[in-house]
Design goal:
Helix content: 10-25%
Radius of gyration: 15 Å
CATH topology: 2,3-Dihydroxybiphenyl 1,2-Dioxygenase, domain 1
Number of helices: 2
Number of domains: 1
Structural class: alpha+beta
Strand order of the largest sheet: 3-6-5-4
Shape: globular
Strand content: 25-35%
Length: 115
């Protein structure tokens, strides 16, 4: 039986800056009222009920999460305006979705998927 991915974690040196970036970029709601200083991110809506799929890909070691966005053409510019970077411009995956990649202010690469 395939086991689903059920959570993710994003780390960085400036937690407050990352929290503000993701609140502004994806509209993520976070709870930070805990002694560990961890921001717990509420689940989103519209995702696959059975969990998410993924890929194992040849290349340099890293982990990338992909987040669905409403407008993939405007999202990379928004990331830059919030202190992030463009990593990969939008492109159509053969027989799949349209995707792009950005980096947050700490350099974590985040994949974007057209809704």
């Amino acid at each position: 039986m395939t086991r689903p991915v059920v959570a993710f974690q994003i780390r960085g040196r400036d937690a407050a800056k990352l929290q503000e970036f993701y609140k502004q970029f994806f509209g993520w709601q976070m709870k930070t009222d805990n002694p560990m200083g961890v921001a717990f991110i509420a689940p989103g809506i519209g995702g696959p009920v059975e969990g998410i799929g993924g890929t194992l890909f040849p290349g340099d070691p890293r982990v990338i999460i992909f987040v669905q966005v409403a407008d993939l053409r405007e999202s990379p510019a928004k990331a830059v305006s919030l202190g992030g970077q463009r990593v990969m411009e939008p492109f159509d995956v053969p027989d799949g979705p349209t995707v792009a990649q950005i980096a947050d202010p700490e350099g974590n690469v985040i994949g974007l998927v057209q809704q």
